[in-house]
Write a structure and sequence with these properties.
Layout lengths: L1 H31 L9 H6 L5 E2 L2 E2 L3 H14 L7 H10 L3 H15 L3 H21 L13 H39 L5 H9 L15
Antiparallel strand pairs: 1-2
Helix pairs in contact: 1-5, 3-4, 3-5, 3-7
Main location: membrane
Protein name: Transporter
GO molecular function: cysteine transmembrane transporter activity
Length: 215
């Protein structure tokens, strides 16, 4: 019974900590990501480049934190003197979960139309589920107890994810610049041309110059 209670305590901690990380990061993104479209830097927040700070609060960037603690787990040999620090580092790897929710928040805000939103979210969920089925296979018994191959795969995934984030931001910024140029061209001296073009334009965020993409 004592062993079962200890196991339950560990499971409670493992379930509670990711929820707290996700909730705190979402709160920080909504409060410090700006109401002005030009100040919204969600992708930088995920990358950890733009770290929001106030005199009383410091929000840890989710992805950079996960990379740092993964490097600690990879390089530091476990011992009795550092086991507490390593278990804290292990829990901090859960910061990676926060970035997924922040990225998901871009989908309903940048995709117009309920059908397109539902399709995009469904495709992302299927990909996420496939990743969850595949990921445990990188931690093989033959690589125990340090699992260097598994953590190496983690670093490769971090690099790919960072590359995709930077590419996504570049793409969204470029599209927003095109939107602003298109909006300026739509407006004639009397304003009539711009009005009719906006009426006839499809209601898609990618095409509408009046709906900037959130980054």
């Amino acid at each position: 019974m004592s062993a079962n209670m200890k196991s339950q305590d560990i499971n409670v901690a493992r379930a509670t900590e990711p929820s707290q990380v996700v909730g705190t990061t979402a709160w920080g993104a909504s409060h410090y990501n700006g109401h002005d479209i030009k100040s919204r830097q969600l992708l930088f927040l995920v990358l950890g480049v733009a770290t929001p700070m106030t005199p009383t609060l410091f929000i840890l960037p989710p992805l950079s934190t996960a990379i740092i603690v993964t490097a600690n787990l990879y390089s530091i040999t476990p011992s009795a003197s550092n086991r507490v620090g390593l278990i804290v580092a292990f829990y901090c790897t859960q910061f990676y979960l926060a970035e997924g929710n922040l990225i998901y928040s871009l989908i309903p805000r940048n995709v117009a139309g309920q059908t397109k939103k539902s399709t995009t979210l469904a495709m992302n969920f299927i990909d996420w589920a496939a990743g969850n089925m595949t990921a445990p296979q990188i931690f093989q018994a033959g690589d125990a107890p340090r699992h260097h191959k598994g953590f190496t795969a983690h670093f490769c995934l971090y690099a790919l994810f960072n590359s995709f984030l930077i590419l996504l931001r570049f793409l969204l910024v470029r599209r927003n610049l095109e939107k602003r140029r298109a909006a300026a061209e739509d407006i004639s001296q009397d304003g009539s041309k711009g009005v009719w073009l906006r009426v006839l334009r499809p209601a898609m965020n990618k095409l509408s110059p009046r709906i900037p993409l959130l980054i």
